[in-house]
Amino acid sequence: MLGLDFAVFRATLMRQVGQMYPMRQIAPSFPGPGLVQSFPMPGPGAFATQGQLGQGHEPSEIISTMTALHEQHQLGNITDEGVAARNSEYLAALRSSSQIPSLFSPNGFQSPWPAVTPPSNADRFGSGPWPPTARPQNPITIYANEAGVSGFAVEPRWSALSEDQKAAYRVRSETLRHEAWAQQEATLAEGPSPFALTACKKLDGACEPWRRLPGVPTRPGIITGLSVFRDEQEIEWQEVLRRWEALTEEHRQVFEARAATANAAARATFREGRTLYAGCPASTQFPATVYFPAGTYLVSSPIIQFYNTEMLGDPFNRPVILAAESFSGFGVITSDVYVDDDVTWYLNQNSFFRSVRNFVIDLRPTPQWTYVCGIHWQVAQGTSLENIAFISTTPTEYDGTTQQGIYMENGSGGFMSDLVFVGGNFGGNFGNQQFTTSSMLFDSCWTGLQIHWDWGWTIQDTEFYNCAKGIVIVGGAGGLFSTGQGVGSLSLVDVHMWGVPVVIETSLFEDNSTALHIDNGGFQNCETIVLKSQTNSVLYPGDGTGLTNVLSWGFGKVADPSGETGFVNGANMAAPEAYPASLLVTDDIHPPAKSFHRTRPSYADPGNSQIFDVKALGAKGDGATDDTAVLNRILDIAANVSGIVYFPHGVYVIKDTSGLAHYQPGMAADHGHRLPVRGHGEPAGRSARGRRGVRRCVMEIQCMMSTVRGPTAGAVLVEWNVHESSQGSAGLWDSHIRVGGAKGSDLQNAECPKTAQNKNCIAASMMMHMTEKSSGYLENVWMWVADHDMEDADQIQINVYAARGILIESQGPTWLWGTAAEHAVLYQYQLSGAKNVVMGLIQTEAPYFQSSPKAPAPFEMGLVFKDDPNFADCSASSKTCAMAWSLRMIDSTNIYVISGGLYTWFQDYSQECVNSGANDCQLSTFYVEQSFDVWVYNLITIGVIQMVTALNGQPVSAANNRNGFASSIVTWLGGANQTAGGRNVTGYTPHTRDDLAGNSFSEQCKTALTGTIACVNQAMQWTSLGYRGSLDNATLQDEVCDVGCRSSLASWYQGVSSSCADYT
């Protein structure tokens, strides 16, 4: 039994028609730490691959292999087309299974998806392997390119073709495949190009032993009999499988035995080193990527995922993890282990850097009453789940099943997307400080999604079919005067349900209630949209036999433009009259007005792109060698041929700007060090993603880490200059920016101890800059100035300084899904002159050391970047004013914030300001000035006095909007269809970038010269001599002597003097 394709499975679910199971009345239950007494280490059991159930290895070998990989720093075994050839038996069995009931109630509603016959594997992938350097032109690929269709539309339309039409495409595909192999052989015979990576190179008339496929590490991390056999054959890759299959079983066993010996040696080597078990809460020294080839893996105890590990299945033929009937434990895959009821291996708020992608997890054989879940996901930032199907027993098959897809009790995440949940008591059972999810599908669950606590959660693009309840929100925040931690807020964006009797069940209290907002909901055959659980009363009725559309509806505290708030007991909420078209889905498959989301590319069909392995082409990635020149050379060549650039694991030192211009990088792991500095806090070194002026490009970056080796006071870690050529084509997925706290950074406890102010710990000027001509799609991007030493067993706090988080000047379209920025000195997010930006959910933290020193210290400089705050209006005696802003918006338009968690936990490392209940660590956290059409939904703050501060406006008080532990408002209307924070004078810019285009000024100098001066436009005339009027002109006197104008002029002049000092 092999893997399951997400798109096919999703389409299959959406077109089934039949009977819906009846509702039942039970109390929702979920296992907490006290219900699970122990989480045993992997014990004896069965582990099988390629359908050989019960005949494989023990599940402990999975753990052993994973731990060994921490030492090896390698990817696992690679699967070629032969090994990864699709097997449709699993999907066919799933379709016909009685355990997957109908999706639509029999009341006349028709599925929007046509009934089609799934394409064959040969149509999807061709009749045989293609050369690794060629573009696979499979029958469906040829058809889709010519017909101009993509996404979920491709396979239904292909199925509608006649057999003669399909046959013609198959002939064309096979002809092209034979031509590609002939071209490959001719190229090899002529001698390989240093930039044409191939599976095999012919030297002196003979073919070298196994080299590697493009983009695949040299040494497999999981050793198999096939890999041992392959390494000894002086044959080309396409022959390996044919010869392997020709061996007798006895001969194969010889190679399998040798592989087992090699694996045992690798595990023994790792056991001699450091392991990330209890007592070792984190480390950056032992990362691992564990690869699961296609197959069915039978497990009888949890697969434990260690810190800094990603688990990857074959994305084109997903492996199945099958939980045995004898399964003992909680999660089939678990990110943490309970030593006692409330003691775990890892601190949940610091459980960073994890990912699980491309699996099918089947729970059905496990006992129905043991609360087994597919994944136990107790994680923090820098984590992701993606492209996973969870198959559980449905309530119609077993009334009272306790199986659940995902259980999450706490943490500080995080992002997950492209998940399918079939059956179970719960599809997902979630609790976390904050999270962002996208593209989830729930079918035939008793409750699709239960949320038992959060402060903020954004759920985008989610579908439910035939669940008794769609979403259950547990307990609100606890009711009258409660300070408990219930569900603080929930934003549902683009949610659609079919045949779900109760869409949302929740409690509702005027004080301390969950802040709920539904944006663009469509509910077909759903009797009740919102049910109030305390009284069993309907807050929003639906239609059991028809369609109910919800544009914008919610309940919670609403802040009006005056800063006053009032409780809305379930009502329509203000919403934009029209969103910019560039931010919405534009194809004909999705509902209208749906926010754009793009799943990370998997490169099943890379087109004509050449793959470049940077280590094979000369980069060292050893943390010592300067790789700047060789990386720029590779990137330049790749840009010219629209190449895919692969960075194997390593630490790539960059001592000058690394420019990535219009290329399509594949899966990458770039740990770049930007070393040069030029003055105290003056930007110098940059990792530039797309050079200035580059427009309309495709640039896709995945799984990269950008960091510094300090002191690097002038470093800008990522400067983003690229603009999309098609919607979402300029993207950044699962890529993070980290300043300090890691081995090799020279910014750990030894160099930067807590409370010490060391100038050598000034490490960055800015973490990320999106320039004005750029656009971007950012998903699961965490920008973090380290607050603790990750290599220390006690995770001791440290003092590291970076001036700015992310500066966005982009004119859009720009999407930030599941991003966070923490601990920068001046601000975490700033939008300056930005336009058409979606942000959901964003999360911030102020530096723990502030206000000692007070911002902008230790960065004592003038305006270096646009609209830098100078904190000049903060009094010397205030301890709460001169602290980092979480979010600033200046001169920006069409900004949409779909949940924001803005937290300040400390005052000079003391948490008394939070623990006392006063929440007065910081005066203000969110600032708006001269910005139009700003829409903010579900704003959550902790530790601040003012939730929103608009120039010349009344602030929104946090104390008036307490909601459990945090403060929250369901919407802020200060910028809705109007200008928020309007200046008394609009101001002017003395120079524009076009004016400066022909000179050699630095970017910092140009930024300073084009800064806005907040004075009346007549002030522009004062730069030259001339008669302006009599001294008794009161209006003129006010203009000349205006304090704001004087301060703005002084700031502009200081910034120009500092940033343009090298120019005359």
Automatic annotation (TrEMBL):
Pfam families linked to this entry: Pect-lyase_RHGA_epim
GO molecular function, one term: polygalacturonase activity
Region of interest (Disordered), residue spans: 672-691
InterPro entries: Pectin_lyas_fold (IPR012334), Pectin_lyase_fold/virulence (IPR011050), QRT3-like (IPR039279), RHGA/B-epi-like_pectate_lyase (IPR024535), Rhodanese-like_dom (IPR001763)
SUPFAM superfamilies the record matches: Pectin lyase-like
Ranges where the Rhodanese domain occurs: 860-914
This protein's name: Putative glucan endo-1 3-beta-glucosidase
Lineage, opening ranks: Eukaryota, Fungi, Dikarya, Ascomycota, Pezizomycotina
